[in-house]
Design goal:
CATH topology of chain A: Arc Repressor Mutant, subunit A
CATH class of chain A: Mainly Alpha
Oligomer: homodimer
Helix content of chain A: 40-55%
Number of helices of chain A: 5
Radius of gyration of chain A: 18 Å
Number of domains of chain A: 1
Largest interface: A-B, 47 and 48 residues
Number of strands of chain A: 3
DNA sequence: TGTTCATATCAATATTTTTTGATTTGAGGT
DNA sequence: ACCTCAAATCAAAAAATATTGATATGAACA
């Protein structure tokens, strides 16, 4: 099983407003970094910082073509994230064990 | 539509290792705060801080009974989080618009 | 009312994350 | 080899988040 630090990585990607704005741009199709940068209130190095976090999370994939890098949403990353979210937040029916004060 | 700050709230709850450890405890059933505290490397006020974040995210619900508060996973919160995750990371087929340099 | 116990809140500090500007790397083109 | 441009990396500063200890709140009960 992955460590909590490892699990947290995917969700960390999703808890910054600027990264959510980047994801929104990618929902409409593949975009290269310079295009993603335009509408954002970010410097080039700031965008690079956020793209690294998004790619490390698996939610976004980058594809190099010459000097440009094209980013797009990853279906595999999305599916993995949903599975992880469910794994972390769904009761485990085989290990039910309310604390004594919770059993009225 | 919710703001990015609002959306980020759910995922912020999931990107701290201590909060993931708390969720793990809740997967096995309802627990009161003092029981949740025991195995954690946290002070009472630290636990209270994290429980507030988890409850505000909607993933956890608290139920007061006398002086105790019993916490449990929220099915509604989980469903909402999954929907939000999909909404943020699924391509929007009606607005496809690759950047010109992405169309080879 | 006064006491106890569980939890919340507050203010200060510590830690982590993000931003910035400068520099570096690396792919093309001349 | 040199130049240009896109992107990554680095170190320092700024901003946000987490932790701590002290104090406050609020429920139960004598």
């Amino acid at each position: 099983m992955e460590t909590y630090q490892e699990s947290a990585k995917v969700f960390k990607a999703l808890c910054d407003p600027k990264r959510l704005a980047i994801l929104k741009q990618l929902r409409s199709g593949e975009k290269c970094a310079c295009v993603l940068l335009e509408p954002m209130d970010l410097t080039q190095s700031g965008l690079s910082y956020h793209m690294k976090i998004l790619c490390d999370s698996g939610l976004v994939e980058g594809r190099q073509e010459g000097k440009w890098i094209h980013y797009r949403l990853s279906e595999a990353g999305r599916n993995k994230a949903v599975k992880l979210l469910l794994a972390l937040t769904t009761p485990d029916i085989v290990s039910q064990n309310n604390c004594s004060s919770c059993d009225k």
